[in-house]
């Protein structure tokens, strides 16, 4: 069973090459090897909100919108009630004792029944991954997005998007009595749990946002998670956003916006009156007869669907990938 989440589409394009040092008053300094929780939360936030994610293969640095967001979402993930399982499962024995089953068997009976109905409902989930066996190394634990599962005999498999391995579907398998899970990519999975997640779309990716780069003063309008350059105030009026405030954002932040919105996004370039449909990360020119004027909006009629049309500035589709016409 697979949800609509696809790691090659809804996962970010860069690997989780962040390092964070966290000083807490009660426990020793924790060094985490990435922002996996922030990345997983961001990917689900965008998936649930029909926002395209960045395909930049370089991680965003601190001080950019996305770099700072992922750190903040990582910290927020640690504050969830289910985060207690990071510590509890870290100390859980890998093999059965007189008192408790091994961690793999416990997760099979306690966590898989929680995950299965959520995925059956089409809702990918953040899951916490247990690698550590000591509180001193709890920072090596991990977070990923589970987007499907398979059951064959007594084998349970979870399909995940792992920020340590972008653009890859990782299959994590377990069998009764095993001391460790088997992953198609990577290793060291002792156990896992369904982690709480609240959808929080990034404010700066809200459709129609007007943003100005603090370094270059370039202004863009956001459509479906992609940034489209504005030449001047006349463009703001032409795309119907007169009076919308322009917010200043950190320099270079636009480098980590998506190149195009999600599939089935229809764009109308003002001035040129050119229509384009986003499919498979490229633009496809649309013939005008397929555009229909309804009383309250213009739509594109395609394959029995009415797709809403979004307006972008003149010239902003130039230089983007184009495919065949539809």
Characterise the protein shown here:
Helix content is 19%, strand content 28%. It is built from seven helices and 18 strands. The chain has helices spanning 7-10, 36-48, 65-78, 84-90, 103-110, 112-120, 233-238; strands at 20-22, 30-32, 125-130, 142-152, 155-161, 169-174, 182-183, 191-194, 210-213, 219-223, 226-230, 246-249, 266-269, 274-279, 282-285, 291-293, 298-302, 305-312. The strands form four sheets. Strands 7-6-5-4-3-8 form a six-stranded antiparallel β-sheet. A six-stranded mixed β-sheet has the order 15-14-13-18-17-16, with no helix packed on it. Helix 2 packs across helix 3 (65-78). Strand 5 and strand 6 (169-174) form a beta hairpin. The mean pLDDT is 92. With 326 residues, the chain is of the alpha+beta class.
Strand order of the largest sheet: 7-6-5-4-3-8
Q: What is the H-and-E element order?
A: HEEHHHHHEEEEEEEEEHEEEEEEE
Separation of termini?
31 Å
Could you tell me the number of beta strands?
A: 18
Mean pLDDT: 92
Largest sheet: 6 strands, antiparallel
Low-confidence stretches: none
Helix content: 10-25%
- Please state the overall shape, judged from the principal axes of the Cα atoms: globular
Note the beta-strand portion.
Answer: 25-35%
Structural class: alpha+beta
Number of H- or I-type helical stretches: 7
Describe the structure in brief.
The chain has 326 residues and is of the alpha+beta class. It has helices at residues 7-10, 36-48, 65-78, 84-90, 103-110, 112-120, 233-238; strands at residues 20-22, 30-32, 125-130, 142-152, 155-161, 169-174, 182-183, 191-194, 210-213, 219-223, 226-230, 246-249, 266-269, 274-279, 282-285, 291-293, 298-302, 305-312.
